[in-house]
Amino acid sequence: MIKIAFDTIYAHPLPAGHRFPMLKYELIPAQLLHEGTIVQEQLFVPQPCNAANVLLTHDAGYFEKLLHQTLTAAEQRKIGFPQSPMLTQRELVIAQGTIDCCLYAMQYGVALNIAGGTHHAFADRGEGFCLLNDMAIAANYLLSQQLVKKILIIDLDVHQGNGTAKLFEHNPHVFTFSMHGAHNYPFHKEKSDLDVPLTDGAGTTEYLDLLYKTLPHLITTVKPDFAFYLSGVDILDTDKFGKLKVSMEGCRQRDVFVFNTLQQHGIPVAVAMGGGYSADIKLIVEAHCNTYRTAMDLYA
């Protein structure tokens, strides 16, 4: 049975303007249950990630600041959220959810985290609404336990996975692939193992053509035995910040292609949702739900 990590901590209260994007974490599972795409037994609530696993990726000094609420005002501005014990707890739950999804993916081919994709977090700092880098933590956990030999991170959020790229820049066991808007945040890009920048206004055909050419080649050259997929829906033409023009159907076709390609090569995949900032939250939820529907269709 395909498993889905469900975070029940929503970090209330948040500043004005931040609560809206958080709603999707409640609405996505509700919609999937309502329409019968998933059943309640597929959802699980992770425990917080333990310190030992966090410290495989993050510096001890930074982690202590998160635990003891001693981030400076400048550090909080860089993250975009005011610090709170609940926010730190939520990030720990997200990180463990992605670790758990890895283990479930090894059983069922795929597992999905309704949160996650916090790819702007570095070893020693947070950025862009990301405190802890859940995929990096999970990747380092898998490697430390000798469960995998080579990992491919497929980051298709519209924003470059700068924290992830920096964390693994000298690690030959993790290949980072980021396909993102060239002129989107972060404005200083780190160097992934492979970056595919897209110009403003790139549409569905251009986007999918690039993905169709790139991903199969990576599979055959990198030869991963595990993959992470960051399935951000901020590539949509309705996104407030994305600058791309990919249709809802194009976004769904992206998911179909990624899942099909990995499945054909027998590569298990842990999925996290990443960004989505369309003005109408129904569009955000629908695009994310398409990722789950696709996974259920192909792997169930």
Name the features.
single chain, 300 residues, alpha/beta, Arginase, Chain A, eight-stranded parallel beta sheet, 8 strands, 12% strand, globular, hydrolase, Histone deacetylase, HDACs
How are the SSEs placed, and which strands pair?
Layout lengths: L3 E2 L13 H4 L1 H12 L7 E2 L6 H4 L5 H9 L4 H7 L5 H24 L1 E4 L20 H11 L6 E5 L6 H6 L6 E8 L12 E5 L5 H19 L3 E5 L17 H17 L4 E4 L8 H19 L1
Parallel strand pairs: 1-2, 1-3, 3-8, 4-5, 4-7, 5-6, 7-8
Protein name: Histone deacetylase
Keywords: Hydrolase
GO molecular function: histone deacetylase activity; hydrolase activity
Task: Please tell me about this protein's structure.
Belongs to the histone deacetylase family. Residues 22-281 form the Histone deacetylase domain. Pfam families: Hist_deacetyl (PF00850). This is Histone deacetylase. By secondary structure, the protein is of the alpha/beta class. It has one domain (4-299): Arginase, Chain A (3-Layer(aba) Sandwich). Helix content is 44%, strand content 12%. The chain has eleven helices and eight strands. It has an eight-stranded parallel β-sheet with strand order 2-1-3-8-7-4-5-6, with helices on both faces. Helix 9 runs parallel beside helix 10 (248-264). The longest helix has 24 residues, at 85-108. Mean pLDDT is 95; it is low at 11-20.
